[in-house]
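ok, trying the design again with the full structure, not the truncated one.
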């Protein structure tokens, strides 16, 4: 008698298909948390001209770039740590801790008497900012309808750019009359607003609950949100051995070549995201635009980012995130290279908006591709390491921008960003090719998660 294949759960196979309505609360909570993430990241760039003009701080462009890199170095540590620990400790505690950390860092910046404490505050903020993103991406990948995963990722990431626009608006409205410190006090709001909502309403991952032995709670959560019930093969292994196994799985036969390519693509994408977010106003001012116009460019590029997330998400669900990411990287290279010229103001706003459409969502589609490469039990770790290693690009971006500004060559800065975009396009394009050429499909991956889906 032939043994029956194992089933995912004891429930009948007629479970209703997952829908956005069933996970609307989860998506909304992730949206709010990442909104404040985007606000905190962009606050620094939004007040950069005022920081450079404050004699008490003693900022130079080079020092400002170095402090920006402290922030992103903190993000690197936060992403690697949170991405590795989230399947062990749980999603909710790490989301809560991440929000508290970047709120605390903003408070330290507001109180800082000089550059040293200000830099420490940005480093603390970076720990929280880096930790939140891979967890939010893992939550969305787990709870969203599989056929709309890229769209769900794009929808969540619109909040990052809405937060960036809010930071720019606060900077424009508050900093000129009340000083840059009050802008950073606004960065304490996440601890007051987001943390209570997350603690009360965010569900824990059924897979994490199952791994902790809370089987009935795991099944109840899965049923409530119309998810498949977790099974032992997909549950993350507990303890230090489990964390090492999850990291080792990144270089298993199904992923060993895709992993470094995803890291390179993430490096290039995050160099662009954080380099542009930190230095766009100063680069535009160095190109001859007024101070108010230069800061407004940051709001315009984030507005483009919101549109880009929606367009890229829907397009990627149809054609695959790799194709969309590669094309978007190429278009980003074209847009940033165009900004070398001093364009008429209206044309410059248009080019910056379109560059925002492509730039930010190119990086987010790297995350969407990552979620398809790794099996459910390794997905959070994979996302954590892709975002974490990619943060080296976020470390390089602000420092590189500061060096270029110090040298007085804005055109070289835009050229550098264009080269980074080309690097990202090449790396992400190779991901499905190396998987297909070696017939590598991650064990336990969801349908559509193999090389065919990536290449389509």
């Amino acid at each position: 008698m032939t043994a029956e294949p194992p089933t995912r759960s004891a429930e009948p196979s007629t479970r209703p298909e997952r829908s956005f309505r069933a996970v609307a609360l989860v998506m909304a909570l992730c949206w709010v948390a990442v909104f404040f993430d985007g606000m905190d990241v962009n606050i620094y760039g939004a007040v950069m001209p005022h920081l450079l003009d404050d004699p008490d701080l003693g900022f130079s462009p080079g020092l400002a770039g170095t402090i920006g890199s402290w922030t992103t170095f903190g993000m690197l540590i936060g992403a690697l740590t949170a991405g590795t620990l989230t399947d062990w400790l749980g999603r909710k505690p790490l989301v809560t801790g991440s929000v508290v950390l970047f709120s605390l860092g903003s408070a330290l910046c507001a109180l800082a008497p000089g550059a040293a404490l200000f830099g420490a505050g940005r480093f603390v903020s970076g720990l929280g900012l880096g930790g939140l993103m891979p967890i939010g991406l893992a939550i969305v990948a787990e709870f969203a309808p599989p056929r709309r995963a890229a769209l769900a990722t794009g929808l969540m990431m619109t909040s990052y750019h809405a937060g960036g626009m809010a930071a720019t608006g606060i900077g424009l409205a508050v900093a000129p009359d009340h000083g840059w410190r009050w802008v950073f006090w606004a960065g304490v709001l996440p601890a007051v607003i987001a943390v209570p909502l997350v603690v009360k309403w965010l569900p824990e991952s059924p897979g994490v609950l199952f791994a902790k032995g809370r089987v009935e709670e795991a099944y109840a959560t899965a049923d409530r949100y119309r998810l498949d019930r977790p099974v032992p093969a997909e549950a993350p292994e507990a303890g230090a051995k489990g964390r090492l196994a999850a990291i080792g799985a990144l270089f298993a036969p199904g992923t060993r070549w895709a992993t470094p390519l995803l890291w390179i693509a993430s490096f290039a994408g995050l160099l662009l995201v954080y380099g542009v977010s930190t230095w766009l106003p100063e680069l535009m001012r160095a190109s001859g635009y007024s101070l108010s116009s230069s800061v407004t460019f940051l709001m315009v590029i984030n507005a483009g980012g919101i549109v880009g997330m929606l367009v890229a998400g829907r397009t990627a669900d149809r054609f695959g995130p790799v194709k969309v990411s590669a094309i978007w990287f190429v278009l980003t290279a074209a847009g940033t290279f165009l900004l070398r010229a001093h364009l008429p103001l209206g044309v410059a706003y248009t080019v910056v908006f379109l560059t925002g459409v492509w730039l930010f969502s190119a990086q987010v589609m790297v995350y969407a591709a990552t979620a398809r490469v790794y099996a459910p039990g390794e997905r959070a770790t994979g996302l954590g390491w892709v975002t974490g290693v990619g943060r080296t690009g976020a470390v390089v971006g602000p420092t590189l921008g500061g060096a270029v500004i110090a040298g007085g060559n804005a055109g070289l800065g835009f050229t550098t960003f264009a080269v980074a975009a080309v690097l990202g396009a090449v790396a992400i394009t190779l991901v499905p090719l190396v998987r297909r050429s070696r017939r590598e499909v991650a064990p336990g991956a969801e349908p559509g998660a193999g090389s065919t889906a990536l290449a389509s």
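Keeping the full-length input from now on. The chain is about 75% helix and 0% strand.
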